[in-house]
User: Which sequence fits this backbone?
C-alpha cells in the first residue's frame, strides 16, 4: 500500500508522509484474510470452540458428580445433593431459595435429623444396601448415591459388587451347611403360578407401561391369586447349593434380584437400586404411631385395572426399593422360590434362555407381589379372621397403611413419576424415593 502524502515538512520544500493508515486502509489490510478458505477455516474454529463450550457447560455438573478414580483413589464430592425439583438452587447458608416448594424445605432443616432411639425404626436395622455387580465408577452419579448418605445419618452403607455378592452367597451356603443346630427359617408354601389371560382387543393399544422404555405387548387382565397359607418353618438345607445356582443364572438381573432378597434376609435394612434418589429421611417413611410394629416396608409400583402393560396384577409392588427386618418370611420365601424353580426342569430353569417375562415371574415384581399378598393375608386378612387382603383393598390408597407388621406405601411413595396409576409427576409430600429408570435390564446381558 502506498503511503499518504500530506504537504510540506518543517524543513521546507519537501512533503510529509503520514504513518497512520486510514480506517479504509486498515480494513483493506485484514480483508484478504477474512475471505475464501481463510474465512471458512476461521468459522470452523469458532464453531468448534462454541460446541466445546456447550458440551462443557452441559456435562460439567454431571462430570463433577461421577465417581472418579485417580491414581487408584476413589473420590467422593461431599456436597449437599440437590432436590428433584425445578427449583433446586440453594443459598449460601444451605437453605432452599424462596421459590422452592414449601414442602420440599421441611426435610432440609438440620434440626430434623434426630438419630436417637425414639425416632429410629426399632425393627429395621440402620443399614443401606446398593448392588452394582458390573461396577464401573465412571457410570455412577453421586447426585443419587450421596442422597442416601446425606439423608441417613448414623446409617451404615454398603455397595455390593461381584466380590461382595459372592461373599454374601457364601454366607448363605455356610449357614445352610452349618453343623450342629439345624438352621430353620419361615417360608410361605408354594404359590401356584398365575398365568395371565390376554384380551385380544387391546393388542394394538399404544401404552408405555410401567417402565418408560416399555414396549408394545398384549395387556393382561385381572388374575386372582389363590387363598394363602400360614408360613411354615423350613430347613435351610434348600440353600446348600445356592452358590452353584447363583453362578448358573444366565442374566445379571436374576442375580441382582436374588441378592436384594438375600441381603435383607441375612442383615435387614433398606435396599434400593443405584438409580434411585432418597428424598426423605428413612425414619420419616413410617408414621410415628406405626414405627413400633413395622418390620417390612413395601410400595406400590402400579395401581390400575386392567393391569398396567408389563405387569400381571392390578396392584403390584415394586422391588427397586425394599426395607425389612432380618429373617423376614417374605425374603426367605423369595429365596426359596427362586432356588426351587431352578430345579423344576431338567438342567434347571437357569439352564435355558429366559425371557423378560420369565424374569418378572421368577425373581421380579410379579413374583414379589404374590409373596407380599400372601404375607398380608396372613398378618391382616383371613389368617387372623379378617376379610381377605386383595388388590381391591389397596387400590386408590393415598396414605400409608399398616397391615400387621407390613407398611404399604401409596403409589407416590416409591413410584413418583411413573406414567400411570395417577402418580404425581413431580416430587410431592408423599415422595420418599425417586426412581430414575437409568438401568437397562431388558436385554440379553441384563
Assistant:
Amino acid at each position: 500500500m502506498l503511503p499518504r502524502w500530506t504537504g510540506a515538512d518543517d524543513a521546507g520544500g519537501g512533503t510529509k508522509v503520514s504513518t497512520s493508515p486510514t480506517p479504509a486502509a486498515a480494513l483493506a489490510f485484514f480483508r484478504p484474510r477474512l475471505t475464501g478458505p481463510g474465512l471458512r477455516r476461521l468459522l470452523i474454529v469458532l464453531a468448534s470452540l462454541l460446541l466445546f463450550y456447550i458440551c462443557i457447560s452441559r456435562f460439567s455438573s454431571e462430570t463433577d458428580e461421577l465417581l472418579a478414580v485417580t491414581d487408584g483413589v476413589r473420590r467422593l464430592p461431599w456436597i449437599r445433593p440437590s432436590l428433584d425439583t425445578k427449583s433446586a438452587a440453594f443459598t449460601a447458608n444451605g437453605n432452599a431459595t424462596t421459590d422452592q416448594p414449601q414442602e420440599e424445605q421441611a426435610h432440609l432443616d438440620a434440626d430434623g435429623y434426630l438419630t436417637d432411639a425414639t425416632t429410629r425404626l426399632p425393627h429395621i436395622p440402620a443399614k443401606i444396601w446398593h448392588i452394582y455387580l458390573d461396577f464401573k465408577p465412571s457410570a455412577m452419579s453421586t447426585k443419587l448415591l450421596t442422597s442416601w448418605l446425606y439423608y441417613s445419618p448414623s446409617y451404615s452403607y454398603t455397595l455390593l459388587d461381584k466380590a461382595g455378592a459372592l461373599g454374601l452367597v457364601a454366607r448363605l451356603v455356610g449357614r445352610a451347611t452349618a453343623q450342629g443346630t439345624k438352621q430353620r427359617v419361615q417360608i410361605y408354601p408354594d404359590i401356584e403360578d398365575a398365568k395371565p389371560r390376554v384380551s385380544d382387543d387391546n393388542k394394538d393399544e399404544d401404552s408405555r407401561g410401567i417402565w418408560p422404555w416399555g414396549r408394545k405387548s398384549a395387556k393382561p387382565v385381572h388374575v386372582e391369586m389363590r387363598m394363602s397359607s400360614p408360613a411354615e418353618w423350613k430347613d435351610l438345607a434348600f440353600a446348600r447349593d445356592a452358590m452353584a445356582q447363583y453362578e448358573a443364572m444366565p442374566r445379571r438381573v436374576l442375580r441382582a434380584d436374588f441378592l436384594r432378597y438375600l441381603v435383607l434376609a441375612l442383615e435387614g435394612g433398606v435396599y434400593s437400586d443405584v438409580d434411585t434418589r432418597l428424598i426423605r429421611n428413612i425414619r420419616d417413611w413410617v408414621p410415628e404411631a406405626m414405627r413400633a410394629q413395622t418390620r417390612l416396608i413395601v410400595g406400590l409400583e402400579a395401581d390400575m385395572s386392567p393391569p398396567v402393560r408389563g405387569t400381571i396384577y392390578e396392584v403390584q409392588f415394586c422391588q427397586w426399593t425394599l426395607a425389612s427386618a432380618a429373617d423376614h418370611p417374605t425374603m426367605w420365601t423369595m429365596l426359596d422360590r427362586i432356588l426351587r424353580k431352578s430345579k423344576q426342569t431338567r438342567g434347571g430353569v437357569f439352564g435355558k434362555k429366559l425371557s423378560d417375562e420369565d424374569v418378572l415371574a421368577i425373581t421380579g415384581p410379579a413374583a414379589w407381589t404374590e409373596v407380599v399378598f400372601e404375607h398380608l393375608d396372613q398378618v391382616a386378612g383371613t389368617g387372623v379372621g379378617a376379610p381377605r387382603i386383595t388388590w381391591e383393598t389397596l387400590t386408590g390408597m393415598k396414605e400409608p397403611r399398616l397391615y400387621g407388621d407390613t407398611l404399604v406405601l401409596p403409589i407416590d411413595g416409591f413410584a413418583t413419576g411413573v406414567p400411570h396409576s395417577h402418580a404425581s409427576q413431580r416430587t410431592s409430600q408423599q415422595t420418599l424415593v425417586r426412581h430414575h429408570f437409568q438401568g437397562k435390564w431388558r436385554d440379553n446381558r441384563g
